[in-house]
Automatic annotation (TrEMBL):
<dbReference type="InterPro" id="IPR002347">
    <property type="entry name" value="SDR_fam"/>
</dbReference>
<keyword id="KW-0560">Oxidoreductase</keyword>
<dbReference type="InterPro" id="IPR057326">
    <property type="entry name" value="KR_dom"/>
</dbReference>
<comment type="similarity">
    <text>Belongs to the short-chain dehydrogenases/reductases (SDR) family.</text>
</comment>
<protein>
    <submittedName>
        <fullName>SDR family NAD(P)-dependent oxidoreductase</fullName>
    </submittedName>
</protein>
<dbReference type="Pfam" id="PF00106">
    <property type="entry name" value="adh_short"/>
</dbReference>
<dbReference type="InterPro" id="IPR036291">
    <property type="entry name" value="NAD(P)-bd_dom_sf"/>
</dbReference>
<dbReference type="InterPro" id="IPR020904">
    <property type="entry name" value="Sc_DH/Rdtase_CS"/>
</dbReference>
<feature type="domain" description="Ketoreductase">
    <location>
        <begin position="6"/>
        <end position="197"/>
    </location>
</feature>
């Protein structure tokens, strides 16, 4: 898919993986709507990449519809990238008692329901577009995590939410294939994001030694580069790609 002149939406685009992806898409010629909860940050970033900002919860239908309207005002909506997510840690049966059920539901709401909400609403818009010469109408890229496969202690909610994202990838791709809409998922490993930046330096260095090669933390720009590669290759569909330097997480 040629990104020049299309419109795209990136959720969680105010920082980290989302910001890097939005920046890469804009550099490739796409007109990008960046959606995030943090209004000031997302508006400043959208201005910097000559895009548009949308504020709201990805699990809220009205908020996502408004963001998609903004994207379609910029051009044909051909690409949606789900990067919004949260990762609070809690043990199933910890010293403070059982895992709070509300926290589990919140993580699933943002990470899984939010991703599906964007997927269903964006794909409906894409299906109404004229096809490209290749027959393609659009692409949706979700973000999971290698925790979907090797969730660590304290990650039950997060791992379950990301496993759900992996699980819906193929059936969504099968269903949307008749419209020429592809669905892909990226499962990053340990990436240098604001979430990791808040950790002590010693802990960050220890994490950076875990991937086999390259023996370092991943970079948001490398996730963004994979999004561009997926867009460029129409044969990539219905699959989850691990981006982790051959890392396999241990229990803790």
């Amino acid at each position: 898919m040629d990104l020049a002149g299309i419109s795209a939406i990136v959720t969680g685009g105010g920082s980290g993986l989302g910001a890097a992806t939005a920046e890469a898409l804009a550099a490739a010629g796409a007109r990008v709507v960046v959606m995030d909860l943090k209004r000031e940050a997302v508006e400043a970033f959208a201005t910097r990449i000559s895009g548009a900002a949308a504020t709201g919860d990805v699990a809220d239908e009205a908020a996502v519809e408004a963001a998609l309207d903004a994207a379609m005002a910029l051009g044909p909506l051909r690409l949606a990238v789900n990067c919004a997510g949260i990762a609070p840690a809690a043990r199933v049966a910890g010293r403070q008692g059982p895992h709070p059920l509300g926290l589990f539901e919140q993580v699933l709401r943002v990470n899984l329901t939010g991703s599906f909400n964007v997927l269903r609403l964006a794909s409906a818009r894409m299906a109404a577009l004229d096809p490209l010469p290749t027959g393609e109408r659009g692409l949706i890229v979700n973000t999971a995590s290698i925790a979907a496969y090797e969730g660590q202690i304290g990650q039950c909610a997060y791992a379950a939410s990301k496993a759900g994202v992996v699980g819906m990838t193929l059936p969504a791709a099968r269903e949307l294939a008749r419209f020429g809409i592809r669905v892909m998922t990226i499962a990053p490993g340990l990436i240098e994001t604001p979430m990791l930046a808040g950790m002590p330096e010693e802990a960050r260095e220890a994490l950076g030694r875990l991937p086999l090669f390259p023996n370092r933390l991943g970079r948001p720009a490398e996730v963004a580069a994979l999004v561009l590669s997926i867009a460029a290759n129409p044969l990539l569909n219905g699959e989850t790609i691990r981006l982790d330097g051959a890392l396999r997480l241990t229990p803790s």
